[in-house]
Write a structure and sequence with these properties.
Length: 305
């Protein structure tokens, strides 16, 4: 029996590049549509989440996440886990990949794939709304495709924005969100907000909006005007329309219709900008199928290191 690869965060990340990742994600959507399922187990406030995906021709993956909120008081990470990757040919376990490695590259890579097609190629000012772990990943990812861009970082707690900006020579913390949105060619929101922080009347013509943070039905990052005035795209209709407040809420209230979603990644050819002045909006919803695509890319790069 072949011993599966064990891929840790730092050594695994050293083999990766953002452009190669997004190309691999695009290629994954040329394969048959993924079968996906999620399951949850609970013990008080603790959770085990298993997300599984199977793509014919690519293989299988099960991403297991343990969420133990009490770990924060012990100085330990609250979220842990791993991704098991299985062969499409015989079902054997090929690799166990660090959970945080897959999550980081899946989340930011998801947004970058859309931006490479929807944002203007000459985008030079990128605003990151939020200053957490995902924000750092977004700066790394967007820098790979928009090498000349400078970054603005806004956070409700200004000190966190300043701390993050100090770690990048091409980043600056800002205090006035409306002003920063009006200057930005790309606006990427990665917050835990349940109420909109981004307003459509702040956006400049030609802006690309990337919405990441709202992942529950009761969460929103953008107001109705953002959704109504922009051409709307999602990574997966199956994981966004009926599940995520950013899309579900305005549809339920008649602000937009499901038919206003131009395309998801299974129609990637439709991800294109029609003019320099139009506003494009992308909802990053994630999904186990993207975990599988990213894990397979990581394993392929690991084997070729």
């Amino acid at each position: 029996m072949t011993t599966p690869e064990i891929i840790p965060f730092a050594d695994g990340e050293a083999q990766l590049d953002w452009i190669g990742l997004t190309d691999a994600m695009a290629a994954g959507h040329d394969l048959p549509k993924a079968e996906i399922t999620d399951s949850f187990l609970y013990r008080g406030g603790d959770t085990l989440l298993n997300r599984a995906a199977w793509i014919d021709g690519l293989g299988l993956a099960v991403k297991s996440a343990t969420i133990f909120p009490g770990n924060a008081g012990l100085g330990k990470p609250a979220v842990n886990g791993g991704v098991s990757v299985y062969s499409d040919v015989d079902g054997t376990l090929e690799a166990i990949v660090d959970f945080h490695l897959v999550t980081k590259w899946k989340t930011a890579g998801d947004s970058l794939l859309a931006a490479r097609r929807l944002a203007r190629a000459d985008s030079s000012v990128i605003l990151i709304v939020g200053a957490g772990t995902v924000a750092r990943s977004l700066i790394e990812a967007y820098s790979a495709a928009f090498a000349e861009a400078r970054f603005l970082i806004w956070n409700r707690t200004g000190a966190k924005a300043r701390d993050l900006a100090e770690q990048f020579a091409h980043a600056t913390a800002v205090d006035n969100l409306a002003d920063a949105v009006g200057r930005a060619d790309i606006v990427s929101c990665a917050t835990m907000s349940t109420a909109p922080v981004l307003r459509g009347d702040w956006l400049r013509p030609g802006a690309h909006v990337d919405l990441i943070g709202a992942y529950r039905p009761d969460m929103r990052e953008a107001d109705d005007a953002v959704l109504a005035q922009g051409r709307l795209f999602v990574d997966s209709r199956d994981t966004t329309v009926g599940h995520i407040g950013e899309i579900k809420d305005p549809i339920a209230r008649g602000v937009i219709r499901e038919g206003d979603i131009v395309a998801d990644y299974y129609d990637l050819r439709a991800f294109e900008r029609r003019s320099d002045d139009e506003i494009t909006v992308f909802k990053n919803g994630g999904g186990a199928h993207l975990d599988l695509m990213v894990s397979r890319y990581i394993l392929d790069r690991w084997r070729n290191r």
